[in-house]
Specification:
This protein is of the alpha+beta class. Helices cover 22% and strands 29% of the residues. Strands 10-11-17-14 form a four-stranded mixed beta sheet. Strands 1-9-8 form a three-stranded mixed beta sheet. It has a two-stranded antiparallel ribbon with strand order 2-7.
């Protein structure tokens, strides 16, 4: 039975060359023997399918004639005869010299190489910390200084890895490219992979004399003070990203620092968006007659709040502009008034209540 190359790669017959290449990459990762794949026959099938569908001319012939297209092998053909009997000994010669197979592109991710690897700039590791702050600091913002142990650029050599004043030479291991090519054997022949040079750590240069502080690495682990600006209105669990405050890497970009903020609960207030909520018990007589009370705001200032005659046992009182600063505005302070009933009445108080009862109250 003729093979359906589209089904082998899992793509539609109208798939673009980019879709075909992506499908092959994915399957190659899964079945390639150097990546732990155990199904050699399956890898041969997907490679055979790709060799045909990635070539526009062979693909047109395959679509027109099937697997027995001119120049290909007839159904049941022998090994070495076109693609029906797919001869892997011709793999590196472009399948008989007809197909250009770019392994640096196709298997770049598998072997760690690829055309674009030389353009990639190394990047240091991102790090994250947890920071607990008081409720008030989260509302109005603050600055905190923390001590973090991390890999930082060496202050003595400024990241060059060389002793101050020494000259830098071209790395003889990678000839200044910062990368080393390695040849590996596979069932398909020899493949060349690319890795970062371990001698110059990708910089392409090595100092004549190494830095005594970092031993030539350009970076060293140390404790460093980091100043963190906490913005006003930050909420519990939110993250602050500090670019290039993470770990350093030689000849590369410093990673980022992520600060996860944990806000301590307040004894009086709780937050709902930009508003502050507080509970205030009100005596029965104050609820019936109205009153003025003094409360302490989140800033620590005394506010004189007028409580009108209450019509229900629970009411809300809003004090505008005394909440959380957020995005250029400020929320409100919402006071939840709750009538506090006495646990015990004196004889005089009881008589007064009975008099009220007689009036229908």
């Amino acid at each position: 039975m003729a093979k359906d190359y589209y089904s082998v790669l899992g793509v539609d017959k109208k798939a673009s060359q980019d879709d075909i290449k992506k499908a092959f990459r994915k399957l190659a990762h899964k079945y390639h023997p150097d990546k732990g794949g155990t199904d050699e026959q399956k890898f041969k099938e997907i490679t055979e399918a790709y060799s045909v569908l990635s070539d526009d001319k062979k693909r047109r012939e395959y679509d027109a004639y099937g697997q027995a297209f001119p120049g290909g092998a007839p159904r049941g053909g022998q090994a070495g005869q076109g693609f029906g009997g797919f001869d892997f000994s011709q793999f590196q010669q472009g399948f008989g010299g007809n197909v250009e197979f770019d392994f640096g592109d196709i298997f770049g991710d598998i072997f760690g190489g690829g055309r674009n690897q030389q353009a990639r700039t190394p990047r240091g590791r991102d790090i994250s910390i947890d920071l607990e702050i008081p409720f008030k600091d989260a509302a109005f913002g603050t600055t905190r200084t923390v001590l973090i142990a991390k890999v930082s650029t060496c202050t003595l050599c400024r990241g060059t890895g060389g002793k101050p004043g020494t000259q830098l030479e071209t790395c003889t291991t990678c000839n200044g490219s910062g990368r080393v090519h390695e040849t590996r054997n596979s069932m398909l022949g020899q493949f060349t992979s690319v890795r970062t040079c371990t001698v110059c750590e990708g910089s392409g240069k090595v100092p004549k004399e190494k830095c005594p502080e970092c031993k030539g690495h350009g970076v060293r682990r140390k404790q460093e003070e980091v100043k963190i600006q906490i913005p006003a209105g930050i909420d519990n669990g939110e993250m602050i990203r500090m670019p290039q405050q993470g770990e350093a890497i030689k000849a590369g970009v410093v990673g980022d620092l992520y600060v996860k903020v944990h806000v301590k609960p307040h004894a009086t207030f709780r937050r709902e968006g930009a508003n502050l909520i507080m509970n205030l018990p009100v005596k029965l007589t104050d609820a019936l007659l109205g009153t003025t009370v003094s409360i302490e705001s989140l800033e620590g200032k005394t506010l004189e709040v007028k409580i009108p005659v209450m019509k229900r046992a629970e009411e809300l009182l809003r004090v505008a502009g005394k909440g959380i600063p957020l995005e250029g505005t400020r929320g409100d302070l919402i006071i939840r008034l709750e009538v506090a009933l006495p646990h015990k009445l004196s004889g005089k108080a009881k008589k007064s209540v009975e008099d009220l009862k007689s009036e229908g109250l």
